Amino acid sequence: MQFEQPIPVQWMADFTGAEIRGDEHQLATGINEIHMVKKGDISFVDFEKYYSKCLNSAATIIIINKDVPCPEGKTLLVTAEPFDVYNKIVKRFRPFEPASQMISPTAIIGENTTIQPGVFIGNHVTVGSNTLIHPNVTIYDNCVIGNNVVIHSGTVIGADAFYFKRRKDREVQYDKMLSCGRAVIEDDVEIGACCTVDRGVTGDTVIGRGTKLDNHIQIGHDTVVGRNCIMASQVGVAGVAHIEDEVILWGQVGVNKDLTIGKGAVVLAQSGVPASLEGGKTYFGTPVDDAKSKMRELAWIKRIPELWNKINNNAK
Amino acid sequence: MQFEQPIPVQWMADFTGAEIRGDEHQLATGINEIHMVKKGDISFVDFEKYYSKCLNSAATIIIINKDVPCPEGKTLLVTAEPFDVYNKIVKRFRPFEPASQMISPTAIIGENTTIQPGVFIGNHVTVGSNTLIHPNVTIYDNCVIGNNVVIHSGTVIGADAFYFKRRKDREVQYDKMLSCGRAVIEDDVEIGACCTVDRGVTGDTVIGRGTKLDNHIQIGHDTVVGRNCIMASQVGVAGVAHIEDEVILWGQVGVNKDLTIGKGAVVLAQSGVPASLEGGKTYFGTPVDDAKSKMRELAWIKRIPELWNKINNNAK
Amino acid sequence: MQFEQPIPVQWMADFTGAEIRGDEHQLATGINEIHMVKKGDISFVDFEKYYSKCLNSAATIIIINKDVPCPEGKTLLVTAEPFDVYNKIVKRFRPFEPASQMISPTAIIGENTTIQPGVFIGNHVTVGSNTLIHPNVTIYDNCVIGNNVVIHSGTVIGADAFYFKRRKDREVQYDKMLSCGRAVIEDDVEIGACCTVDRGVTGDTVIGRGTKLDNHIQIGHDTVVGRNCIMASQVGVAGVAHIEDEVILWGQVGVNKDLTIGKGAVVLAQSGVPASLEGGKTYFGTPVDDAKSKMRELAWIKRIPELWNKINNNAK
Could you report the per-residue pLDDT of C61-76, keeping only the tens digit for each? Predict the structure, then answer.
């Protein structure tokens, strides 16, 4: 997320109660997670093993839970609870704005676009031209829908990231990381009925140009789906996945978070993808394997009784 | 379900056409299934193998399809079709009430709660305070939503139990058991987009305090989910399951009915759970096994060709 | 799809720019895919391997991308792009009609039928009597809903077929085949919450009398589900499948397109059905097998370490 105007880091320190280290005159232009920060951004880290990655990232301002030496040209905001500070900033700069009507007056709708009855379009949403949104679709605040897009009924674009920090010592153990990112649906995408595309935590979840999703599909937060992909019904893709162009996922495939599926890969129905896959190949199984190897494996399994007989005959 | 006021059992006999046995002066205070009856309740049984369980349950009044000796202190309502009698009573005491507006005037909404546009809230629903219900959510009659709850768009709370009695001799073979129970969402729960939490047949389906559900999750009737559980997208839990506290179910896991998953159990993605699981362990596979055993099993499968070669070499 | 009135084939040739061969005086009464054409229909073919099937089908008029000899009594419309011509005809004879209100004034609703708030009913929809449609359901144009039907919230009936032609040479590779068919829900059907039943491409998707669907179920275009079937939650059936009467599909089963599941077959939870299954049997696994064989296979897998030890002992 970018702020509407740059914010003095000293103001942030005062607002959050964090102690400032390093340059006290920086301006914060946005807040982002480590994997997508750029110059001017605030980022945050609360696990020692990610300190070095965060301190060496492009982030200009780092919220951190240890008083480490401040890298040259950066500012630290030291606090016991970086997670809470992050949430406090998000709440202040992207507060939830309740809606008073189905289509927000702040939404921008392109020419020749049809919005059917029962559609909710949140604040600051942009919808392109020649787009068709079928009845009872929900589009949360700040999302971006392109041109020539079709979205079928019951689909929900931009619901919150499913992202919680566990605190086992509390009665209510899961602490929600607030989402301030967006879901971006590029031109010429078609999304089936009863799908969900969650928004990014701080960045964008993207469905790339020309991609077609069938019904009941889940796309997690910060996942980037490339161009001209096909996903059949009931596919689930977790957060922060990267599905490259022209990937085909058949029905009920499940894809783990934090991985890449290479260009043109095909994953057969009901497979489970735990880790990155090379492009241009066909996969099958839970966990997935090269489809042909998997088929051979299934054939071998059927031969176990034959092996058993052979062993017994050998033993005679 | 409890009745609003106690009903004389003689009235029930007259209303249903059942023959009365035992104490004719009892008062019925509610109607419930065997597994959740209490004193004063009506229950019903139409399978001989459950007779003894039902007759020895806490139920005060038993609708039964055989003229068996009436246990001391109870009343029997003898009828050829206990199922039909149950449905007749439910229809009379909890009739379907069509809605004339999106938010029923009989609903009670707490302070600081935000109901976004397009939300349906049925009759006699209670929603706590500081709760946020996103657009196009549906909450059926009589459900209870706690404080600090978030429910995302497209989600349906309290639809009917999927519960049918098969009658092979009829043209329309499946006869619906009417639901009169509720869905209860406790405090601090978050439910993702396009989820379904069915109501209980006669009792409550419960999502326990602090539990977080991702998108596209199915929770069947009368299932009780404990506190601080996590379910990832597209998990399906059938009816009458008991998921204890702090259980984690990863994406696309399927859970059978009538079982218990013990406290703190973790079930890895796409697994299928056919029967009860001990708590505190990690499981994987369809049907699930201890995750490490399952991983070893998968490694062994890949070695079958090696076994084959060994056998052939031994044979030489 | 049938046209409202017969259309002269010469008009079609002029409208589409196709070259006419054979009888120039035919009347086209409808347009349908090969697998469901009847006399009077237009059909189309653009793959050489389907030429003979299409030319020998019941279709009276055939849109084709090669100037082949015209069979006796038929008419050919020869064009480089039969797919585009099909889409042009559908757009002309069944154009998308945007809605201006939640329940179309052209819809026909039967007696004693309850339509809850938030329901969208498109143009030319027919709903029978004694039917109950829960809040926030969407029914697309031209669908047919029978008598004594129950449809739960969030469900979408009649969304477009997921049917695209790939054109690898274009920037936007997937070209949508427009749907002009319907979804037909027969009498006494119950459909759970958040289900999707897509409409046929040119014909009907059918849910047969007395069939009951749980929540989150996907039924693809042109699939015909028989009578008195049961599908548990999160089942997905692809397009052009034929599920015969009294079939039971347990939770999260996936069914491929273009196949038949025979009468009374039972498919256990999470199974994947790649091809046709005989009726009257029980199946399990991905891909499915006879359930008992599959269970034995799973038992054999657990014995591989035992085989390994035996082999090693034999070798000594």
Answer: 999 999 999 999 999 9
